[in-house]
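Protocol step 4 of 5: obtain the predicted structure for the target chain.
Materials: sequence only (see below). No template structures provided, no constraints applied. The aim of this step is simply to have a reference model before the mutagenesis design in step 5. Sequence pasted as it appears in the construct record:
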Amino acid sequence: MNKQPLMKAVGLLRYLPIDQPESLIDVTLPKPVPVGRDLLVKVMAVSVNPVDTKVRSPKDHSEKEPRILGFDAAGVVELAGPDCTLFKPGDEVYYSGSIARSGSNSEFQLVDERIVGFKPAALDFAEAAALPLTGITAWEALYDRLGISGQQEVNRHKTILIIGAAGGVGSIATQLASHAELTVIGTASRPETVEWAKRHGAAHVIDHYEPLAPQLKALGYPHVNYILCLNDTDRYWAQMAEVIAPQGMICSIVETKEPVNISLLKNKSAAFVWEFMFTRAMYETPDMVQQHHLLNRISELVDDGTLHTTLTERISPIHAANLRLAHAKLEAGSMIGKLVVEGWGEE
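Step 4 output (structure tokens):
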């Protein structure tokens, strides 16, 4: 009888502070087998996002079996399920997986092909792994939620305020919005983050620790057509309502801790919408394949030089100690760009 092949992975049994050695542990698991529209991907690199640290953060309950975290990944298709039509073994891919399934911190991962894109040819696996979650979030926020036009001439006299422009999503959203010919006003507070935001397409940068309206007025923008909030919706709610233009649109990716006063938007007929990039995969929506298409479009924009990876730090190889280090760096709150962990070390 043939034994089922095994694979390396990094997971958790208890939800602990990241300085605890058991917060993330090395484990060995059975190598999965794809069925239906699943791909089995050999994972070459993973990036760490705030959602990783949020899911891992201390909680009262524990797991009976190791829970494998990780969302962003780049790798090579090992096997394709019998119903797959978009990919074949050997294809180089990148994706951000599903919050409802086992994660990317494993040598091999099952992922539905409808949320997978072809890796940008111009990037290595680590550079590509930095892009999917932030790229999907930024793309969906701008085009699907805010309804920004894909026609540049429509956008040339419109403005967008991106709160948190130097973060992971902000770094991609700034590039995309600038490419769409919107006037991008980003927020940042440190000299290095101001420079980062400008380098990625922000025409202006204001300080998010100071009141937004006076700074915008000083730039000649009493109102903005769009707002993308990537940090602390509660804190900025009243300010966003103040500076959004009549009939403008606000989108946030950060859940509120307290109820907000939606009536502040009424007289302006302004709209508010959420963006959560896992929605399509969680609910297997009829348009789930749109994430495949938009990742392929992002690859095209990378390969033609329009978009750039936001990778700023690499750690190697992938194991529990290095992923604990990556989580700790992210939780410190001073990261610029994306941190990627790559390779599985000696076979």
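Step 4 remarks: The first strand starts at residue 6 and ends at 14. The first helix runs from residue 50 to 56.
Proceed to step 5.
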